[in-house]
Specification:
Number of domains: 2
Strand content: 5-15%
Helix content: 25-40%
CATH topology of the largest domain: Aspartate Aminotransferase, domain 2
CATH superfamily of the largest domain: Type I PLP-dependent aspartate aminotransferase-like (Major domain)
Number of strands: 14
Order of helices and strands: HHEHHEHEHEHEHEEEHHHEEEHEEEH
Radius of gyration: 20 Å
CATH class of the largest domain: Alpha Beta
CATH architecture of the largest domain: 3-Layer(aba) Sandwich
Distance between the termini: 44 Å
Shape: globular
Largest sheet: 7 strands, mixed
Length: 370
């Protein structure tokens, strides 16, 4: 495999240094939590090799929230959703294999298959079409050598959500064509309406991926999971995990388990904050003319662009935004898109910082006009 550092990682706020950022609108999660926020200690924990598939109680809890027909044996704990995506790509793909990937997308969904040498067909989401998923286009893109179709919902970076019909159509295609459907569901519990079913609960051809990083604000424990009801594939995925690291961190998995025990209370509090933050960014969008967006339907990110027709020096815009106003967003090139696009995260900042950061976006845009 040929590894390349992804711009989204090289230019991430943790690599730049949080002390240099006053208004951080790059984050794609809710605000990070402390262990003390979770209300427990781990002083008496034995640091042993854990169950290779993952903490049994954690897998049972994930199975319970994944659908009535999902069992703990159909859950594999991984090092975050990124680790899950890596295991899936390296287990299913070889050089010359083909996959279909929704674009824009989180870079790991693209860069790992690329590093393997797979042939990627991009299912481009179009701003003018509301970044809507067109499953009829997927059918025309699947080949005999296609191993899987990779979708994300709620979508990162646009915040759009596929419909239940879209999901069922995509599953039907995978079953008919003999490939698999991978759905990154990391933001599933942040859907503004009723969440879609976990894709893997609907078909043995579907693979679902999620984590505690975004909705639960604990990315530092690196805990995610794969749900798949195909026992043969699960054996392969477990083999990959064992060869990468034998098992996960028992500390991380214990924290994850206890965090999920407080799931209902956390989601209620979480959703109140997201609702307030979303109303603020929606109001901002409606009261300025420098930016356009497709209004998101879930998650805590959106993907606005500089309004069409505005002649703007994009390098100057980002320089003013970063250096003069200390405000950071995720520029379009993080997602292999034009820099007129940017991912704006509205769930992580404190409300006053969100308001000021959005005001700074308007200021920088006006000052960068040619």
């Amino acid at each position: 495999m040929k590894y390349l550092r992804m711009p989204i990682e090289k230019e991430s706020p943790e690599q730049l240094g949080y002390d240099l950022i006053r208004y951080n609108l790059t984050e794609s999660s809710v605000r990070d939590r402390k262990i003390s926020d979770l209300g427990f200690t781990l002083e008496d924990m034995t640091l042993f090799y854990g169950d290779h598939a993952g903490h049994p109680g954690l897998r049972e809890k994930i199975a319970c929230i994944s659908g009535e027909n999902v069992t703990p044996d159909e859950v594999l704990i991984t090092a975050g959703a990124a680790g899950a995506l890596f295991i899936i790509a390296t287990s299913l793909l070889e050089q010359g294999d083909h996959l279909v990937v929704e674009k824009p997308n989180y870079s790991t969904n693209i860069e790992t298959p690329r590093a393997i040498g797979a042939d990627i067909s991009f299912l481009d989401l179009v701003f003018e079409e509301g970044f809507a998923l067109d499953t009829s286009r997927i059918a025309s893109m699947i080949r005999p050598e296609t191993k899987y179709v990779s979708l994300t919902s709620p979508h990162n970076p646009t915040g759009t959500v596929m419909t239940i019909d879209d999901l069922k159509n995509a599953i039907d295609l995978a079953e008919q064509k003999g490939c698999r459907l991978l759905v990154d569901e990391t933001y599933r519990e942040m859907t503004f309406g009723e969440p879609l079913p976990v894709a893997a609960s609907l078909s043995k051809k579907a693979i679902s991926v999620s984590s505690l990083s975004k909705t639960y604000g604990i990315p530092g424990i690196r805990t995610g999971w794969i749900v798949c009801r195909d026992p043969e594939l699960m054996e392969t995925l477990l083999s990959a995990k064992e060869q990468i690291g034998i098992c996960g961190s028992v500390v991380d998995e214990e924290i994850a388990y206890r965090a999920l025990l407080g799931r209902e209370e956390w989601l209620k509090s979480n959703n109140l904050h997201i609702s307030e933050a979303f109303s603020i960014i929606k109001d901002w969008m409606e009261n300025q003319t420098e930016f356009q967006w497709v209004e998101p339907s879930g998650g805590v990110v959106c993907f606005p662009r500089i309004s069409s027709g505005l002649n703007m020096d994009m390098d100057l815009f980002y320089r003013i935004l970063n250096e003069k106003y200390g405000t950071y967003v995720g520029p379009g090139h993080w997602f292999e898109m034009p820099r007129r696009f940017m991912r704006v995260g509205y769930g992580w900042p404190h409300i006053p910082d969100l308001k000021e950061g959005l005001t700074n976006l308007t200021r920088a845009a006006r000052e960068a006009l040619k």
